[in-house]
Amino acid sequence: MRNTASILRIIVLVGIAFLGVEFLLETDPGHWAVVEYPKTWLFLGIVLLFAVAIEASVAALHSTLYKSLSEEKKARYHELEAHKSTKFEQKIQSILSKMTRSKSIEQEGEIELDHVYDGITELDNKLPPWWLYSFYASIVFAAVYMVRFHVYNDYTQEEEYLMEVAEAEAAIEEYKRTAKDLINFETVTLLAEESDLNEGKTIYNANCVACHKADGGGGIGPNLTDDHWILGGGIQNVYKTISEGGRSGKGMVAWKNDLSPSEMQKTASYVISLYGTTPAEPKEAEGDIIWTPDDN
Ligand code: HEC
């Protein structure tokens, strides 16, 4: 009895560890973490080793303690153990019989029907409560479902699909907005999509026009439409200037705390798209670095 219990405990523990590994390590659907990450075997092996070691030490302790008992106490111990196990079995039995309301073979005579066919008799068993209540629950579920989806036409499967896709897309957007490492000045690329440039323009108009003018002609800040750059042209330099700011004390602050990486990428792309346009009142060219979009 004790051995089976120990083995069961070990299996359950290793099973939980296995489920934990599968749950915590992300794998593509249909793939097993234990196959994709062979190192997990090491972890499971250690768990197994620990479980066996703990069971073994507890058993050893138990037997040492048992040996130290006097004969009289040993007898008392056996009595208590027997009592414990029968009590436990009784409890299990009573739960089972409550869930099934089945009759034991000895009592079957009480529920046997008169109906006999070819020597086969029939028992008038009660419906097992576990089954009966699940059946009632399914009826309630069906009624609610029917009214909700077929009478009030809540949403169709197609709408449910579209809702989930929209949610997933929102989550991706959110991720892109907040994931800092996705874009930095080394990996940033120039955007050419109309929609991205329009977003960049919106951000520029909201934050930058005070110093650079709406047409990029420059004011407190330098002219952004010419080929002269103080801090360097090209998407990488412009992104870096927006993100980290200009030389200290000049007035160009770092925007990385106010704008997300993708917003700065769009704004930088918009700034570069201003090259070659003719502002109403262009500020004189500043900076010694000459860069035009053709240099990329
Ligand atoms: C408070 C005024 C101010 C605001 C607001 C401002 N800038 Fe600037 N910007 C400057 C100044 C001043 C410089 C020159 C920095 C230097 O000399 O180091 C500059 C430099 C730049 C440069 C580098 C130009 C070069 O020649 O290298 C870029 C690009 C730029 N700003 C883009 C932006 C963008 C995009 C925004 C809005 C998100 C913005 N700025 C908002 C004042 C401003």
UniProtKB/TrEMBL annotation:
Source organism superkingdom: Bacteria
Statement: the UniProt record of this protein carries the keyword Iron: yes
Residue stretches in coiled coil: 158-185
The entry's keywords: Coiled coil, Heme, Iron, Membrane, Metal-binding, Transmembrane, Transmembrane helix
Transmembrane segments: 7-25, 41-66, 130-147
Gene Ontology terms, MF aspect: electron transfer activity; heme binding; metal ion binding
Name of the protein in its database record: Cytochrome c oxidase cbb3-type subunit 3
One Pfam family of this chain: FixP_N
Domain Cytochrome c: 195-275
Matching PANTHER family: CBB3-TYPE CYTOCHROME C OXIDASE SUBUNIT FIXP
